[in-house]
Q: What sequence folds into this?
């Protein structure tokens, strides 16, 4: 089967790739671009571990075909740092102990980032609702919610 | 005293978290090696069938396929954790025993090719009658799953202490109930993956695992490769919860394929494969009979517990025992009989689980509340009355050295206003309490201890080498934190090399709650040995007594005259000059009774120490839908001294999710041999919105043997949160539960049952 | 799990999309958010030579008012719709069902058109090819039996859209555009009653617009699920009333929602509907909760929803 040319921005860098039309964004990021921060846990849209931000919206990249993001701007966990400085969410996740095994972490961070980008001061309830899109098996979520609250405070 | 420490007892940022928040942390599926092949496994579509023939020829002809294997390519050695449980061929040649069992595998240049090749493998089966229910499997005439185990009874743990029948006869109050529970899924977020690379006769492997050394040994046996040529390497693990403690078929498959193909091979399981073919948790039926005196003293316990073990033994003897032990280590049982049966069925293999035994544990606790109520007591009184205390000996002869059970009960009940709420009663609201003790480590022969090597580098930085494993709990950070405290250098100055069988020494692994008590203890001893060397040189150089030397923040100084100081790096360089660099080893071996054996000799000292905990759940029941919500959850855990309170809280909070909230939603659903929810959608891992408001109470005590007085970080909550929820639901409905999880349909049934009785 | 091979085509307008469909002789699937379609393709439950992406079609993304209707383009995401002022003010049942759909992240990707046209579900159907092959194919996979109800002659898979229920309760209509031209029908008319192939859409037809009569309503949506996010409905009940008339729609049980028209609403109306719906509902053992329980909940949720609706007016 023929491959397709796709051009999009990843973490502020333009990339042009030849991809299979039936390739998911998660596969492209992990296998072609070596951006392994987004993880594969269910590939059926059920867990949010693969979440990346596309044009400001959190997407489960296991359900997105790479050709669909032609022309779009994709941010992955690797793009959260700006000028070698950690994003407030990354700092807060570390300081609040919101990371255990770390497998859900990048998806959580990206889901939370999209939230803070559209809502600078979310309430605890809003945060809980938002991260209820993602499964974490380790933490009980308490410290994740606290970390997002903390990051929201910091980023103002 | 508290302030004397620099990092121990502090809420420090975990050493592994930076790599995890930046996405740089590597997990097995992230590994890419030059020329790496992709493996896929063909699995049994039958629950029980004879294998007549396996034909790999056509698969091997597919362009891009580099190797194909079946059980006929192995030595046919069966794996078992124990001498008497060697029943798992990993790749069977005689028959398949569950749907999803590994039958054959290929390695190819990419996934598409591998999948195509799989479709060309022909396996001829002759289906056999199968059995799925453990009680049926024990009946005479049931299909036999293994010839060596009559009536499919894999393990029978029989414990009989005192005179149970007599005590029951004389008891004031006797009650017998039967509780069932569906097995849970580990549902670690990372599906199982393994990379094997065989080169020049040496085999390197990466996989999420809880004990690299035992794995290497198992693979060395199965592959007949000398142990020194099998190397399990370090990699991050996306959760284990007890599910990754032993060698798995995937390890053997990837290794064999790599040997055959002559290049590295990656096998990454899909979510469904992870659910149907790796280990799951036991379904259970627990008969609990209790006799009490009028004053609530437990005089006898009689148990018959049936564990659905699935097709193979796995850690069977341990799994058949642990629920009982964590309970007998908590309460005083003068007379007790336990008959635990682990039974084979034609379903996926069952292993140990962090929350293992909920039917038994929650059943015991809920029944105790009902009996207490009849005697005019409340759950707090009855637990305090029967709870073990420091210095006591358990029914099977383990001495409790330090014990914070009482404090955890008192603090959690005070904090929640337990007694008042329990007496209540606001309709459809309930409160419940669960207690348990946890052995920190258990007998594993010469693997019960751990040792550590530490060296100081010329810049004053430290390298720690230990077999200690981290499955996400924070064990690595814990080791670094302890070294940092002892050596007086900040955590970021310490490099950790761990869980790599080529470099690190034997360690019990991260599945018996031994990481803190044993592994970290060895780290502490090694660092203390290194410290002595540093102190000796520094004292000489600074002209003060050794006892006057403090190591802190990379500096050695005199306590009396703090200006009299020198950088630790100078000390290190001086040591190099002297031809006696600062290197040291240290070991820790717990004081346990090594004659103790799970089946043949179930008595003697089980572990070096025990931790204790109490959970309190508050629930609200929707009386029309039966849906349970848990607005508040309070957990108190005696962890000895918390090394990093934030990490201990994290473990407790995770436990409340995985054991507590799980009690109302988690359970594997089976239709005969088919797992109906092998995914993350229909298997219900609780979400943020399902979580209660959590309050964690760390009861800090000082264990005389533990590192800085520490025991373990939070497992008691994992083993009693289910009890708290089940007891709270019983309190709210006024009836004992029959089966877990307490899904709304079951709770509604309970409410209706209760109504029926009243009427 | 890798996807099977297919071509990807992006259409800039409806005509182009239909042209693609015809080009592939019907061996094509339309793609909106993909949150229903992609898992089905991965599981080999939906196969196609080509996937035709509708997201480039501008006209499908608009929400507008026209001639007494609220017109919603099929590609409007659930999240956008939820945050639309008119929806919040006029159609509380729809607002509540949108809010209860899966989770926020999926609401931001999933479209209302895709939500309505999502395939029916069954615990024994939404599984991998390997699982299903071992179990044996059922009606919905082209087999000869139902694996849940032995000897049944129909498929009892469940229609799990939350929002179709509230839209039906709001008397919504849909516009379709296909190779044979355009047509408009009431939303409840798109259901075939056959779990194997739940919709009456003709090959190649595109759902272009959803139309809701612009009348302020009182309403509620009640959903039965185990977790309060991500989960599909095990039962959904939408109630919407305008003055003395209204509608109740029950879904999540069987392939077609149950619809009840209410006239001259009085004290016993909802009780009667609850009883009627209870006896009409035919849940089978193909979800994680028992059929008996789900059946019982039909009347419970109807009463609950109605209570909320009736209280609202006071
Ligand atoms: C984990 C998970 C949980 C979910 N939970 C819920 C839930 O609780 N409630 C719920 O209702 N849904 C749920 N969904 C399903 C799904 O996310 C939503 O229904 C979503 O709105 C579907 O929209 P979509 O745009 O992604 O549809 P797509 O997947 O793009 O399309 C769905 C179907 O409709 C067809 N289609 C789409 N648009 C058109 C059109 N304009 N014309 C003709 N055909 C079209 C497609 O060909 C496909 O067959 C869940 C999904 C997942 C993965
Ligand atoms: S209800 Fe029966 S026919 Fe329909 S999908 Fe389920 S098993 Fe198949
Ligand atoms: S891996 Fe994409 S949602 Fe689970
Ligand atoms: S930290 Fe392990 S899954 Fe979230």
A:
């Amino acid at each position: 089967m023929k491959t397709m040319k796709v051009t999009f921005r990843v973490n502020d860098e333009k990339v042009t790739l030849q991809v299979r039309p039936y390739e998911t964004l998660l596969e492209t990021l992990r296998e072609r671009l070596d951006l392994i921060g987004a993880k594969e846990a269910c590939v059926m849209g059920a867990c949010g571990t693969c979440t990346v931000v596309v044009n400001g919206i959190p997407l489960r990249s296991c359900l997105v075909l790479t050709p669909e993001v032609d022309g779009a701007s994709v941010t992955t966990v690797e793009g959260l740092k700006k000028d070698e400085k950690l994003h407030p969410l990354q700092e807060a996740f570390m300081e609040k102990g919101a990371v255990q095994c770390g497998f859900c972490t990048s998806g959580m961070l990206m889901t939370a980032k999209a939230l803070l980008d559209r809502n600078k001061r979310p309430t605890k309830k809003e945060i809980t609702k938002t991260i209820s899109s993602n499964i974490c098996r380790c933490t009980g979520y308490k410290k994740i919610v606290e970390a997002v609250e903390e990051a929201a405070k910091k980023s103002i | 005293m508290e302030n004397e420490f620099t990092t121990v007892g502090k809420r420090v940022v975990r050493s592994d978290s930076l790599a995890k928040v930046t996405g740089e942390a590597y997990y097995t599926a992230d590994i890419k090696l030059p020329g790496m092949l992709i493996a896929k496994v063909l699995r049994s579509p039958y629950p029980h069938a004879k294998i007549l023939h396996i034909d790999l020829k056509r698969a091997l002809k597919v362009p891009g396929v580099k190797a194909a294997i079946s059980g006929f390519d192995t030595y046919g050695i069966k794996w078992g954790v124990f001498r008497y449980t060697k029943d798992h061929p990993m790749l069977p040649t005689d028959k398949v025993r569950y749907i999803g069992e590994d039958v054959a595998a290929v390695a190819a240049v990419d996934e598409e090719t591998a999948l195509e090749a799989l479709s060309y493998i022909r396996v001829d089966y002759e289906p056999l009658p199968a059995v799925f229910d453990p009680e049926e499997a024990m009946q005479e005439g049931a299909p036999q799953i293994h010839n060596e185990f009559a009536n499919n009874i894999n393990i029978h743990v029989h414990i009989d202490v005192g005179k149970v029948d007599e005590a029951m006869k004389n008891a004031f109050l006797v009650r017998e109930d039967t509780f069932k529970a569906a097995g849970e899924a580990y549902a670690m977020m990372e599906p199982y993956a393994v990379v094997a690379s065989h080169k020049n006769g040496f085999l390197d492997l990466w996989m999420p695992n809880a004990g690299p050394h035992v794995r290497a040994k198992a693979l060395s046996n199965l592959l007949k490769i000398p142990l020194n040529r099998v190397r399990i390497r370090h990699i991050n693990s996306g959760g284990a919860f007890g599910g990754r403690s032993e060698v798995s078929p995937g390890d053997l498959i990837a290794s064999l394929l790599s040997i055959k193909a002559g290049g590295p091979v990656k096998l990454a399981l899909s979510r469904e494969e992870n659910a149907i073919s790796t280990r799951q948790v036991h379904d259970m039926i627990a008969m609990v009979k209790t006799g009490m005196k009028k004053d609530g003293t437990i005089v006898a316990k009689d148990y018959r517990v049936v564990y659905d073990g699935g097709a193979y033994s796995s850690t069977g003897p341990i799994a058949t025992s642990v629920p009982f032990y964590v309970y007998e280590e908590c309460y005083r049982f003068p007379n007790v009989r336990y008959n635990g049966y682990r039974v084979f069925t034609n379903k996926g293999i069952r292993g140990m689980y962090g929350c293992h035994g909920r039917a038994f544990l929650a059943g015991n606790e809920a029944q105790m509340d009902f009996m207490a109520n009849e005697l005019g007591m409340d759950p707090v009184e009855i637990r305090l009355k029967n709870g073990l205390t420091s210095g006591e000996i358990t029914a099977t002869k383990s001495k409790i050295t330090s014990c914070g059970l009482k404090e955890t009960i008192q603090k959690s009940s005070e904090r929640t206003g337990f007694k008042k709420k329990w007496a209540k009663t606001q309709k459809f609201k309930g409160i419940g309490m669960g207690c348990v003790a946890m052995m920190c480590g258990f007998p594993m022969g010469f693997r019960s201890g751990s040792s550590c090597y530490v060296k100081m580098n010329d810049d004053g930085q430290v390298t720690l080498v230990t077999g200690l494993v981290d499955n996400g709990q924070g064990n690595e950070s814990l080791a670094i934190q302890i070294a940092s405290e002892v050596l007086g250098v900040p955590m970021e100055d310490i490099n950790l090399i761990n869980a790599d069988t080529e470099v690190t020494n034997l360690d019990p692994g991260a599945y018996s709650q031994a990481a803190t008590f044993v592994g970290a203890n060895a780290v502490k001893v090694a660092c203390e040995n290194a410290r002595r060397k540093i102190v000796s040189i520094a004292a000489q150089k600074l002209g003060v007594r050794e006892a006057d030397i403090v190591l802190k923040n990379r500096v050695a100084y005199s306590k009396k005259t703090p200006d009299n100081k020198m950088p630790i790096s100078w000390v290190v360089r001086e040591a190099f000059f002297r031809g006696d660099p600062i290197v040291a080893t240290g070991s820790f071996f717990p004081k346990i009774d090594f004659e103790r054996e799970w089946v043949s000799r179930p008595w003697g000292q089980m572990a070096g120490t025990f931790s204790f905990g109490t959970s309190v759940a508050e629930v609200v029941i929707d009386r029309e839908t039966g849906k349970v919500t848990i607005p508040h959850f309070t957990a108190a855990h005696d962890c000895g001294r918390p090394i990093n309170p934030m990490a201990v809280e994290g473990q407790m909070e995770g436990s409340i999710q995985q054991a507590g909230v799980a009690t109302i939603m988690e359970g594997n659903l089976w239709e005969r041999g088919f797992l109906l929810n092998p995914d993350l959608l229909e298997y219900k891992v609780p979400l943020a919105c399902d979580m209660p408001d959590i309050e964690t109470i760390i009861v800090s005590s000082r264990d005389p043997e533990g590192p800085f007085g520490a025991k373990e970080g939070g497992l008691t909550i994992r083993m009693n949160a289910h009890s708290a929820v089940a007891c709270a639901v019983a309190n709210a409905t006024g009836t004992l539960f029959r089966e877990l999880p307490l899904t709304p349909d079951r709770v509604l049934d309970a409410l209706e049952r209760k109504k029926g009785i009243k009427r | 799990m890798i996807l099977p091979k297919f071509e990807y085509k992006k259409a800039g307008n409806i005509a182009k999309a239909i042209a693609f469909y015809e080009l592939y002789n019907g061996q094509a699937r339309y793609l909106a958010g993909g949150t229903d379609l992609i898992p089905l393709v991965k599981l080999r439950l939906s196969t196609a030579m080509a996937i035709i992406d509708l997201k480039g079609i501008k006209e499908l993304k608009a929400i507008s008012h026209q001639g007494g209707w609220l017109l919603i383009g099929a590609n409007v995401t659930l999240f956008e719709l939820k945050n639309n002022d008119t929806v919040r003010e006029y159609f509380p049942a729809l607002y509540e069902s949108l809010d209860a759909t899966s989770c926020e992240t999926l609401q931001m990707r999933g479209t209302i058109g895709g939500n309505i046209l999502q395939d029916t579900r069954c615990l024994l159907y939404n599984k991998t090819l390997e699982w299903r092959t071992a179990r044996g194919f059922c009606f919905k996979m082209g087999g000869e039996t139902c694996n849940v109800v032995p000897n049944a002659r129909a498929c009892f898979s469940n229609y799990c859209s939350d929002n179709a229920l509230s839209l039906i309760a709001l008397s919504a209509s849909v516009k379709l555009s296909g190779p044979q031209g355009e047509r408009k029908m009431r939303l409840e008319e798109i259901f075939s009653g056959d779990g194997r192939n739940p919709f009456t859409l003709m090959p190649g037809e595109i759902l272009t617009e959803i139309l809701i009569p612009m009348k302020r309503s009182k309403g509620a949506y009640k959903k039965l699920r185990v977790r309060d996010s991500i989960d599909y409905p095990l039962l959904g009940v939408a109630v919407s009333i305008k003055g003395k008339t209204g509608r109740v729609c029950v879904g999540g049980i069987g392939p077609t929602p149950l619809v009840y028209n209410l006239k001259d609403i009085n004290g016993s109306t909802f009780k009667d509907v609850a009883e009627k719906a209870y006896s009409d509902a035919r849940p089978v053992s193909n979800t994680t909760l028992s059929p008996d329980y789900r059946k019982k909940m039909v009347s419970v949720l109807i009463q609950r929803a109605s209570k909320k609706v009736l209280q609202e007016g006071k």
Q: What stands out?
A: Residues 15 and 148 of chain A are 31 Å apart (CA to CA). Chain A has two domains: 4-77, 88-155. The pocket of iron/sulfur cluster (ligand 2) is lined by residues C 122, 124-125, 138-140, 146-148, 155-157, 195, 286 (CB under 6 Å).
